[in-house]
Batch of 2 targets.
Target 1
Amino acid sequence: MFRFLLPPLLLILLTSCAIDPPAPYGPCPSDAQLRWQQMEMNMFCHFGPNTFSGLEWGEGTETEDIFNPTALDCNQWAAVSKAAGMKGIIITAKHHDGFCLWPNPASNHTVRESNWCEGNGDVLRQLSDACQRAGLKFGVYISPWDRNAPTYGTPEYNETFRRTLESALTGYGEIFEQWFDGANGEGPNGRRQEYDWTLFNNTVARLQPHAVVFSDVGPGCRWVGNEEGRSGETCWSRLNILGFEPGKAPAAELLNQGEPDGDVWLPVESDVSIRPGWFYHADQQPKTLQQLLEIYYTSVGRNSLLLLNVPPDTRGLIAPTDSLRLMELRAALDSIFAHDLAADAHVEASNSRGANYGAANVIDTHYHRYWAVADSCLSPSITLTFNHPVTFNRIMLQEYIPLGQRVAQFEVDVLLDNHWQLLAHATTIGYKRLLLTPITTTTALRVRFTHSLACPVINRIALYQDNILQ
Ligand code: FUL
């Protein structure tokens, strides 16, 4: 009889000894938001009548035939994006001019009405297929502002837009992100539209439950507040959104920095173009490698996802200047981040929650292993000691955001001539924080968490050397 009771008893004893993980703090990311944040860098493609007219905001009066790419090849977009290390592509399926890059049954201003491919072309089909083949995720920008739709400015338009969403979100497989622009100008008859955001968001949620919805205020992720790829030095993935909507958003600074007590989890997306314009213009040049690296540090390195726009040209191809620049960026990022100089450090912390939550987890690359401390410990420190002097100028820290964002302030010291010296200080960490420091050689590095909203939960600390952007 005891023989049978023993195993369950042991199990109960063992589980009661296991230490609980820290309880989630505040709003936390959904699975879809976490997967989205882990993508880190995606490609935006602005493509449509503006590519051919040279405008940035088409009038909506352009003839459909203006859309006439001579050598469209979405496999080339996907190949470039993949080789650059992007994880997904978002295309302007409909920009403000109203032209649809797919034969949208809710519109008469689409590829179907053009001579391109004798009216049988479908850019969304080509791109979604290309993404699937390349192992990339696929997303759509669909502008609610429409300078062509005859019903724009009347309640009927909301229904037209719902049907537009329905068509784009059902015919092309899984959509990882729905991009809603906040722009709300005049329609063809000079009227503005009262958007039914509840209807729009519900439609996306119903048809693509895993899609992250971008707008000024989400609900999936938020605009960074500028078009320069610059997230706040302090950047909380939380925001108070009550009373706001796309186009009627909180101040840019608030979008940029978020709020530690925000009522929802709303991570930041930094959208920026590789060129001065969003659409391709033959007389414009892509940003330099240095500029792109800076953008990487101020977006991905500041708790944001980077959505880098690379506009295809009038042939329907990514220009060689741009793909070359992207390959340079990839090579630079690989050379900087391929080798974690702290990977074999000896790690000790002032506090640990116990087994499974040890300090050494910060050099473990498994995402779900993290260092955690006792609930009451709000300002712990952690020390990494190296066998040999290590030379670096970049520090990467990651908070384990599935349990919320907690760290509000921290300082980094290095051991120089047997004395701890302050090297860097910063505020938030979030999903990922990259600190740029002067080139430093040391045998030990210490991070002191000086202000946290709840006990810090850290899943990674790494050191790198960047010889490109000093
Ligand atoms: C803005 C639009 O007005 C621009 O044309 C572009 O699409 C950019 C990404 O969003 O609000």
Target 2
Amino acid sequence: MEIKNLIRKNILALSPYSTARDEYDGQIGTFLDANESPFENGYNRYPDPRQRELRSLIGVIRGVEPANIFIGNGSDEAIDLMFRIFCTPGRDNAIAVAPSYGMYEVAAGINDIEMRKVLLNPDFSLPAEALLEAADSSSRLLFICSPNNPTGNAFDRGEIIRVVENFAGIVVVDEAYIDFSDRAGLLGALASYPNLVVLQTLSKAWGMAGLRCGLAFASSEIIRYMNMVKYPYNINLATSENVKRLLSGPVSDQVAVIKRERGRLARAIGSLGFVEKVFPSDANFLLVKVDDADALYDYLIARGIIVRNRSRVPLCQGCLRITVGTPEENRRLLDSLNSYKRDDL
Ligand code: PMP
């Protein structure tokens, strides 16, 4: 597959903005090139637009070459860039599984791209055939979120690969929650599939949602276009410094706690009389079907606990999505769930 043929013509023709910091590689001691303030306060200089240090650190952690890594202002930036690079507004279309993460559709709407949503199978498995059938000659992007938000399940790797192999556009596999899954993600498949883009984020397992740092992994050709189209200084200095500091944090211990708590919460919630089902989860949240989702949602709000009401989402009727918290937060949640209904008596 020729990736070049999928890129929008105006992007192929683009001369990207070249920043002051793009134009040197060596040792410079006096910076009079970028109209910055010369007075040191820690943040008076622009950050590295190529994010060389961060990309090499993340590359080591994920076993991926820096040339295959894009760093964005959250993975939301990478999602938006996919549309801006591959889709011509008003003409092309994109495909996504449903229900799934809402930003694919919002980014499509902002970019004036038709979004074709394909319902998951009733058991939440990947509807590979239906996804491929939804495509036509104007389909440029296909989004698969695995583990999926809000259903929580990871899809069968062979089924995802089948879609990647048979879709004549870019397949974006969003692995925001992959660190909570026992299944391997698709980073290892990148070299075999030039049309595959894998998204990950530092917002979940890595504990850095407030810093806004998302990752895209893809062929060096796609990454080059992403870096051309992004804002030159999309990752600010404070984010970059804090990410570097926190990348060596106790992430795997914290993921182990979340996975243990997830199992404990699932069993405890599943035993409650008003709970119809707790869906198996490969993520850091549980999708829970209850007898009256709106009533339970309001009850929890009144007790100072907010969860996500997904009861109006297709295939999720009656469902709340509950993030796994600290053991103390989960105890508070269970205390409230245990007193729900009993308070009515
Ligand atoms: N993908 C999925 C599946 C998500 O659930 C989220 C956030 N809820 C994101 C991407 C966005 O993550 P980020 O904070 O990196 O923008």
